[in-house]
Amino acid sequence: MSANAEVIERIMGSKNTVEWVLADSTPPVTVDADLFEQMILNLSINARDAMPDGGTLRVATSLEEVVSADERAPSLTAGSYVTLSISDTGAGMDEATMARCFEPLFTTKGPFKGTGLGLASARRLVENSAGVIDCTSRLGVGTTFTIWLPAQTIDDAVPTIAPDSTPTPVTARARMS
C-alpha cells in the first residue's frame, strides 16, 4: 500500500485531500500484487473523477472478524478478513448506476474517457482471491468500495513438503499495511 501512496497523492491533485487510515499491521492476503495495485489506482482515479471541485479520498485498512452472516457483506463466510475501504466525498451514484457498476464495459464517463473495465476487473480480482467487493453510495455524499480478503494464517504461509514430493507453491502475497 505504501508503494502506491505517493502515486495516489499525485493522481488526486491539489484540489483533493487524501486521508490514510491504515491498521498498524494486518496479516498477509493471497492476491495478485500487480493487479491489486492497479485496482487501488483505478478506484482512486474514479474517486478523483467523481470530485471535480475537490473533496476527500479516504483509504483505510483493518482486520475484521466475521462470525456469521454479516450485513456489510452477506456472502462472506465466517473467518478473519483484511478489509480495504476506498471512500470519496464525490457525486455518488444512484441505485441504478450502483446496480450496474461492476458490469464489464459499463461506464458513466463520456466517449473516449474510460473503458468501463476497471470495476469489472476489480470484482474479478477480488473474487479470484476468495474475497468480496461491496459498493455503497449516496448521491451528493460519496461512494465507498470495501474489499474483503481472507486473512492468511501462519499455516497458509508455510509451504509443506511431504516425503517424495515437490514443495507446494506459495501464492504471491500482498500486505495491506
Structure description:
There is one protein chain. This protein is α+β, with helices and mostly antiparallel strands and 177 residues long. Helix content is 28%, strand content 27%. It has helices at 2-12, 33-50, 95-100, 118-128, 154-157, and strands at 16-21, 29-30, 55-66, 79-88, 132-138, 142-150, 173-174. The strands form two sheets. A five-stranded mixed beta sheet has the order 1-3-4-6-5. Strands 2-7 form a two-stranded antiparallel ribbon. A hairpin with a 3-residue loop joins strand 5 and strand 6 (142-150). Helix 2 packs antiparallel against helix 4 (118-128). The longest helix has 18 residues, at 33-50. The radius of gyration is 17 Å and the shape is globular. Residues 158-177 have low confidence and may be disordered.
* Approximate strand percentage: 25-35%
Q: DSSP helix count?
A: 5
Rg, Cα atoms, Å: 17 Å
Order of helices and strands: HEEHEEHHEEHE
Largest sheet: 5 strands, mixed
Strand order of the largest sheet: 1-3-4-6-5
State the total count of DSSP E strands: 7
